[in-house]
Write a structure and sequence with these properties.
Length: about 300
């Protein structure tokens, strides 16, 4: 298996910066008349087509080896959960709060690493995890009555899905290139997303011709979402191809910073003081976790 930690970290940082734009594109599209589930459908379709074309152009086989089927199934389920749950959460809660909750997944990866990769997190990492969950309590607790529980649950479910996505992405990269399994995974989750989108829209999709037309700004946001997601996903899968999940995951800490900054600058979102404080505590815990991991190595 390839193990080039430096290149994996570089890809992780690039992916994190691009992923930080994704929920903001979804939120902006929602404000301009396009439901998050349709944004999810659009980005899934774009990536499935783009990666399939890339794989075919490179002469790669679009088939899943028998040994890769378990990790492929887990990757498909986890990608579906992240796509629907995390992006769906921004319909109910601010982007900044959604990303605070979602970004507990590096902590979950850290705690599950002993089982998946044969490592022990150690007492210090467990303490860091407790700090992160304390930060979540600070961010959500005092304002719990003022936020939509659906958004909180969806963001938390997305965090669990991201954890599975990282581990299964590392496993499947032994057998398939990012273009092949990225295209196949998104093709696999496309039918249920289409079904959910049609059910939620009572049989119509706002971005299709002949449907209730969304604002042009919403369509522009969709186009940006598709382009950014393709590049970000490729960078993420390359990161997992070059290095273990526990090595690259902490460097995705850049994503919540980018997401929150864009939400404040472009969307004009302002979180409450406790939410900023809790988010800062979580970010500090994640950075501490990555430093502990580097010291151990």
């Amino acid at each position: 298996m390839i193990n080039r930690a430096g290149l994996g970290i570089a890809c992780a940082l690039g992916a994190a910066a691009l992923y930080g734009m994704v929920p903001n594109f979804v939120r902006a599209a929602y404000v301009n008349g396009i439901p998050p589930i349709e944004s999810t459908l659009f980005r899934t379709l774009v990536l499935a087509v783009a990666f399939t074309v890339i794989a075919l152009a490179k002469g790669e086989s679009l088939s899943v080896p028998k040994q890769a089927i378990p990790s492929f199934l887990v990757q498909s389920v986890s990608t579906f959960i992240v796509s629907v749950a995390y992006l769906g959460s921004v319909q109910f809660i601010p982007v900044g709060l959604a990303v605070i909750i979602f970004f507990l997944f590096p902590v979950l990866i850290m705690l599950l690493a002993p089982v998946v990769e044969g490592r022990s997190p150690g007492v210090l990492r467990v303490l860091v995890a407790l700090v992160a969950f304390t930060g979540l309590g600070i961010a959500v607790g005092p304002s719990f009555d003022g936020v939509d529980i659906r958004g909180i649950l969806l963001a938390a479910l997305g965090s669990a899905g991201a954890t599975l996505q990282f581990f299964s992405g590392r496993a499947i990269s032994r057998y398939l290139t990012p273009a092949v399994f990225g295209g196949l995974v998104h093709a696999a989750i496309l039918p249920p997303i289409v079904l959910i989108a049609f059910l939620a829209g009572s049989g119509t999709l706002t971005f299709l011709p002949g449907a209730p037309v969304a604002a042009m700004a919403g369509l522009i946001c969709l186009a940006g979402l598709g382009a950014v997601y393709v590049v970000a996903y490729m960078a993420q899968m390359l990161a997992l191809r070059f290095a273990p999940a526990s090595t690259v995951a902490p460097f995705f800490n850049l994503e919540p910073v980018v997401t929150t900054a864009i939400a404040a600058a472009i969307l004009g979102e302002r979180l409450q003081i406790n939410q900023y404080a809790g988010g800062a505590l979580i970010l500090a815990a994640l950075v501490a976790s990555s430093l502990l991991g580097n010291r151990k190595k």
